[in-house]
Amino acid sequence: MLERIDHLVLTVEDIPRTVDFYQRVLGMRHETFGNGRSALVFGQQKFNLHQVGREFEPKATRPVPGAIDLCLITRWPLERVLDHLAEQGVDVEEGPVARTGALGPIESVYFRDPDGNLIEVGRYPD
Known about the structure:
The protein has 126 residues and is an alpha/beta fold. 17% of the residues lie in helices and 43% in strands. It has two helices and eight strands, in the order E-H-E-E-E-E-H-E-E-E. The chain starts with 6 loop residues before the first strand and ends with a strand. The mean pLDDT is 96.
């Protein structure tokens, strides 16, 4: 019945700070739509951004910043990811470590965005 995730919503403290982080650290593209709404676009997906306290309806029952864990897949070798994160001043919490993704084994690193969301960047073996 389902094919893929199209978008999800991140509730954040500060939209410009979030946009800067995801553009600089993860290479996402900022897009505005509707009446000045913001989204972060990558591949065929996007994260719509809601400012905490000014969310759009309908919304989650308890939208709060820092309540999500994301796993994103890269084609970059993890050594390159680690070098990039270091250049951007991002502290790695864990990794590289072996994990299991939707399609099988992956190797991942973990860090946090400005709101404390846990970000996992994983890579499937060649």
